[in-house]
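Let's sit down with a protein and look at its sequence and fold side by side. Once you have written the record down, we can walk along the chain together.
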Amino acid sequence: MGNTEDLPREVDEKKIGSPYSNNPIWKMVREGKTNNLLKEFQNGRADCYQVIEESSGHTIVHESITLDRRELFKLCQVYGADWDQPDANGLTPLMKAAALNRTFYI
C-alpha cells in the first residue's frame, strides 16, 4: 500500500469546535451546496450581505472567493452582492480576490 500521509483529510468541524458548525448557511457555503443556498436566497433566509463568519467578518461573497466557489460567487452577483463591504481586516471581496490571485473574481 502507498503512503497515506499525502491524502487529503476531511475536517470534522464538530471535533475542532468551530463556532460555525451549527450555522446552516455557513455550512452550505463551506460544502459548496450552491443549489441549497439558492433556495435560502429565494426564501429570504440568506443574503449576500450577511456575515457568516464573525471572527473574520466574512460575508457569503468573501467566503465564495476564499474557498474558490465560482458558482456561489455568480449567485451572489445575481442577488446584488456588495463588493465594497470590508471584512474584519478591512478587505473588500475584490481586495480578497486580488490578495489570493483569484483573477476570475476581478
